[in-house]
Give the backbone structure.
Amino acid sequence: MYEQHVLTNIFIPVLLIVERTLCNDIIVTPPVDTIALLSYTAEMKCRLDETRSNTVFWEKDNTIIAINKIIENRFVRKYNIADGDLNYDLHIYDIGFDDEGVYECKHSGQSPNAYMYVLDKKTQCATNNAVAISGEIVHFSCNIGLPNNAPGDLVWYIDDTEYYRSNFSISAWTTSLNRSHNGAEFVCQLEHTTISSSLWNLTACEDKIELSIEYGPIVSINDNSNGRVIEGDTYTARCTVDANPTATIQWDNNNWESNSSDADLVLFDVERRHEGTYTCRATNMLYNNETRNDSKAVFLSVEFEPELMAVI
Ligand SMILES: *[C@@H]1O[C@H](CO)[C@@H](O)[C@H](O)[C@H]1NC(C)=O
Ligand SMILES: *[C@@H]1O[C@H](CO)[C@@H](O)[C@H](O)[C@H]1NC(C)=O
Ligand SMILES: *[C@@H]1O[C@H](CO)[C@@H](O)[C@H](O)[C@H]1NC(C)=O
Ligand SMILES: *[C@@H]1O[C@H](CO)[C@@H](O)[C@H](O)[C@H]1NC(C)=O
Ligand SMILES: *[C@@H]1O[C@H](CO)[C@@H](O)[C@H](O)[C@H]1NC(C)=O
Ligand SMILES: *[C@@H]1O[C@H](CO)[C@@H](O)[C@H](O)[C@H]1NC(C)=O
């Protein structure tokens, strides 16, 4: 215990000296791999923790761009360096393909570098089929045209809500979709912190995907009288069907059948013999020729005034 204490005391001054030299004038914010948009401006960061005590160089592919804050003459239209004592952020204007390359911020023996990728293609969204049955697996792909080691995420949105995010090296997305996705808009875009989020719409595919998701009918019956009607009155019930593709609708009861595809069941001048169960059945056929159906029933009870059956 005592020995350890002595050791610590000996090492403290040594550590302080080492730390002092390391911390002095160090690059605290190095450049990071960046994605730039054609004809836009890009930025490579380089920030010091203390006022410069040595020269700062910016180089692109080993060519000097700037020394301290002075841009080389032939590059003055292309580059600019930020204001501020500790700030050596490099701004690159009017991005073209030849701006792609390695940018290096050199200072006091340090030379952190980063690659700038220039986005040259429109994002391509694709799917293997435009029609799918609810629950079926659907394959999507999102192609950007940058090498796999480029930074960033590929993000899929469905009707503007983020749905799936993957790192850049994975362009395929496989998922199962349900009826809530019928007619929804699928868009993939590239997102990375080096692209301002207000420009992410420029990295989104223009060929938005819209899928027809097929599903069997879901039937519901609505009437205003809860299955009760007074003799002589008209009874109306509506059969509401949610289906894709559109379903055929049929109402029937035990002794009566309607071939009408009308969603409304209308019985005029109801008689007692009309009492009974009325079923609405809907059927559709999916793209693989599979038929699906659903049905709901309402029991109609016919109410009438008490009658004298016989005179005593
Ligand atoms: C992307 O994800 C894959 C698989 O999860 C992983 O192997 C790869 O290292 C990741 N790439 C990056 C750049 O994070
Ligand atoms: C459809 O799937 C999503 C998630 O994949 C789920 O949140 C939603 O509840 C589902 N909707 C239906 C109608 O099944
Ligand atoms: C991208 O969004 C910005 C601002 O939100 C808008 O001004 C611009 O027109 C959009 N561009 C495209 C291609 O949608
Ligand atoms: C309904 O149609 C079927 C076949 O088209 C027919 O056989 C049946 O008689 C029809 N029923 C009524 C009540 O019209
Ligand atoms: C569905 O039926 C049609 C006509 O009977 C036929 O031409 C088609 O190949 C069938 N499709 C499938 C996926 O079985
Ligand atoms: C309705 O679907 C069921 C299976 O879910 C099937 O057994 C039945 O025959 C279908 N009825 C009609 C009228 O198509």
Summary: Residues 1-8, 10-23 have pLDDT under 50 and may be disordered. The radius of gyration is 36 Å. The CA atoms of residues 25 and 53 lie 7 Å apart. The pocket of 2-acetamido-2-deoxy-beta-D-glucopyranose (ligand 4) is lined by residues 257, 259 (CB under 6 Å).
